Inverse folding.
């Protein structure tokens, strides 16, 4: 009964706070996270820590649904026209953030190179959840939105590659040995295998679903496949994001079925609410003191790196002015993959450095998720993907 009541409290808190922040013209995601902080252990403590820990699987499921939905934006016809430009732009914004963070940690705070490399690579990831939720809430469309979704979709792949390389260098530096190619080739190969597996699921799913399939059958089979892909990846300690994204991409390109994505998105809304509220509950406010000035500097330098990288990359590929000026503004959120990479980094680094890495990533992730939706909404307004709201409404 305690678990059921807690779920009811979480849903009520998230729903209510979303209505309140809407009066302030802020996206729902911001309200969800704020409600999590309020009902969490460091404020009113309405939810037991044991229940919060037991909800860890919600994060995997929510991110799997999000990754699947991102796949519909990766149409081969579009990528053939702008694929190389989008890939270049994604590398620019991700690696600029990684380079900025790494440089800061080495030359300003004089921290070990191994720690700086792993923190920089972890910080290169952008969480798609809050940005995509904001786009959906305001039904934004246009060139800017298409470019943003493609960059966000590819960003995690770049972050995984950067982390694998950084981890190999960091381990070599800490152990005093030469670089071992197997250290980073293995995780890269495993992720590629999961991407292929996800794509195969997409093609199989397209064969299973027919025009005669009922709406109930369609949604049950879709959720079944998404959970199977996610569980398979988790059993191998691989992030399910890329695999689920490949699943959605393969199905979208094979079937051109937009209805399925709408159905999955409708089912997943309560899951998204639980995910973001739990993120707020997981923020250890006292840990912010541990990170101190290093955490604050990381928070702002990563933002600067993302913006400069997106701006410079847009200049090179001659992107439209709205993409050049405002894309970086929508790339602030950091969660999901970055938190997973932080766990891996903590295992690689010495205990003290691993603990500092975890505190910085976990605390800043929730703060990014708080400002991310508002920043994404501002980018959508400034790029004219949506119109500014003229009045308050419930």
């Amino acid at each position: 009964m305690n678990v059921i009541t807690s779920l009811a409290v979480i849903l009520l808190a998230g729903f209510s706070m979303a209505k309140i922040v809407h009066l302030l013209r802020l996206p729902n995601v911001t309200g969800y996270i704020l409600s999590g902080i309020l009902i969490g252990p460091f404020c009113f403590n309405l939810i037991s820590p044991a229940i919060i820990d037991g909800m860890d699987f919600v994060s995997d499921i929510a991110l799997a649904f999000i990754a699947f939905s991102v796949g519909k934006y990766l149409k081969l016809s579009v990528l053939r026209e702008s694929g190389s430009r989008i890939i270049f732009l994604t590398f620019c914004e991700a690696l600029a953030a990684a380079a900025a963070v790494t440089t800061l940690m080495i030359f300003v705070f004089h921290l070990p190179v191994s720690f700086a490399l792993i923190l920089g690579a972890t910080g290169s990831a952008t969480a798609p959840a809050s940005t995509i939720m904001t786009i959906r809430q305001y039904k934004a469309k246009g060139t800017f939105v298409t470019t943003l979704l493609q960059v966000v979709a590819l960003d995690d792949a770049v972050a995984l590659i950067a982390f694998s390389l950084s981890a190999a260098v960091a381990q070599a530096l800490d152990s005093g040995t030469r670089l071992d190619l197997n250290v980073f080739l293995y995780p890269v190969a495993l992720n590629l295998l999961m991407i292929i597996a996800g794509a195969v699921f997409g093609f199989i799913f397209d064969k299973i679903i027919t025009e005669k399939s009922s709406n109930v059958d369609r949604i049950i089979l879709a959720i079944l496949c998404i959970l199977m892909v996610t569980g398979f990846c988790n059993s191998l300690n691989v992030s399910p994001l890329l695999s689920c994204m490949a699943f959605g991409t393969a199905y979208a390109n094979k079937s051109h079925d937009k209805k399925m994505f709408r159905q999955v998105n409708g089912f997943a809304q309560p899951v998204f609410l639980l995910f973001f509220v739990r993120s707020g509950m997981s923020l250890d406010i006292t840990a912010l003191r541990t990170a101190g000035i290093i955490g604050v500097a990381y928070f702002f330098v990563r933002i600067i790196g993302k913006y400069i990288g997106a701006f410079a990359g847009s200049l090179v590929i001659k992107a439209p002015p709205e993409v050049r000026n405002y894309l970086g503004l929508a790339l602030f959120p950091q969660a999901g993959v970055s938190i997973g990479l932080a766990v891996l980094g903590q295992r690689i680094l010495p205990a003290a450095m691993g603990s500092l890495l975890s505190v910085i990533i976990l605390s800043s992730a929730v703060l990014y998720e708080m400002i991310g939706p508002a920043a994404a909404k501002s980018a959508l307004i400034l790029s004219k993907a949506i119109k500014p709201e003229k009045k308050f409404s419930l």
